[in-house]
Structures are given as C-alpha cells and as structure tokens.
Amino acid sequence: MWTHISLTQRDRIATITLNRPEKLNALSYAMIDELLAALDRIETDPSVGAVILTGAGRAFSAGGDIPEFAQSVRRGTDAALQEFVARGQRLTARIEAFAKPIIVAVNGLAYGGGCEITEAAPLSIAAASALFAKPEIKLGMPPTFGGTQRLPRLAGRKRAMELLLTGEPFTADRALELGLVNDVVPDETLMAAAEGLARRILRHSPLAIATVMTAVTRGLNQPIAEGLLVEAMQFARMVPSEDLPEGLMAWQDRRPADWRGR
Fold first, then answer.
1. Is 260 part of a structural domain of the chain?
2. Which positions ≥6 away from 228 have C-beta within 8 Å?
3. Domain match, 214 and 191 both
4. Which domain holds residue 94?
5. What are 214-239's pLDDT values in tens digits?
C-alpha cells in the first residue's frame, strides 16, 4: 500500500518510517500525501494509542524535495502555493493537532521540512548524532511548513531568528536546549527510548490523554482566559465518561486504574 513510507504496529504503538533513504527522506509530494493518508488511517484505528515517526537510513528528513519544488515554482505562484506550501502546512498542522500522541524519533538529519515536522509534533527524541537546520534562507526563501511560527514559539524570538536567518546547522544538544526535543539519547537506543516514552503515556486513560493534548494545542496560542475555557471544556468531556470515576476510585482504593476497553 505504501511506496514512500512504511507503517508497522506492535501492541498499541504504530511506527511510521519515512522511506526514501537514497534521497535522505526528502519530502516529495507523494511522500507527504502518503503520510497524511497513514495518519488518517491510524487516527480512527482503536488498536493504536500512540505513533512514532522516524526515518530510514541516516536521515530523518533532509527537507522538501527541491527538484520537485523547483518545478512548481517554474509553474508560478499559484502552483507553488498549492502544491508545496499548502501541502506542507497541511501536514504539520495535522501532526500538531493529531488526536493521539506523535513522538518524532530524529535518527539523523532534520533539515527544513524535517525540522518543521519535529517542531509540530507534541513530543520528540533525538539521537545524539542528529543534526538540525533551517536552511531555507540559503534557497532565497523563508520556511513554509510553519517554521517561522512554531520555532519562535518553542525557542524564543531572538534564538529562532538567528537560526532562521543564518541557516546554520545545530546539534541535538542545542535542539534540546531550545525546547525542540524532549531528550537526546545514544543513537542505538533511540527507538527504545521513543517506545518507552509511548508506553509511559499509554498507561493512562486514552480519553484523558486526548483531552490534555487538545487543551494544550488549542489553548497555547490564545490569551490565558480563553485557554482556561478550553481547559474547562476538556475536563467537562471527562465527567460523564467511565474514565474519571475509575481513576478516582482507583486512587481511593490505592490500586492501579483499569483502562481496559476504554
């Protein structure tokens, strides 16, 4: 079914692998479309509780497929906006607002669009050898998959501006310092670390996980008063559910909560 990605599942964790290693997993239009289709499939699959997104070979993703993008540019502004910009922004917005936790396991180069996917994901872990960059300025353009908006929100305006305006690469440790990743681990333990984080999350109520993610994503860029309303609305989803009474009773009984079937 998949040509440019692979999709596997173990227990409740689905792993999507960008699979164009000979092109450093450059984000071709077909790859982006397949990735969106895979996310659609996973989101409605009750057997999947979390997603790990990684890359094959020595790169997570070196960014957009430049030859393909250049053809769109030659066709004019409308074509470039529709084929490249809108498609890339649709992908990062989908990842950012996905209903289940997505953990990006950055196994190598994360340049351009690969870095923007990492910025959009709610969680990410980097291999120690991973290398990041915002090189779009070297092509004579700004980032277009959300990088001018998400990176300043993660790293702060001045630190993000330096990366965006110089295009210089930065290490996994620098990405950790900037808040772009949650952790940096030895290369050989990257997938185990990502799976471990997923399993620590999946110990909890699926509905509670979804409400936390929705509250944070929707409230983050709103004034605090409106964000608090979002938070209250997400709590209200829990009250009539089976999960909140089970969690409260388990706490009172000093036992682990039973989320089976929820």
1. no
2. 219
3. no
4. 5-202
5. 999 999 889 999 999 999 999 999 99
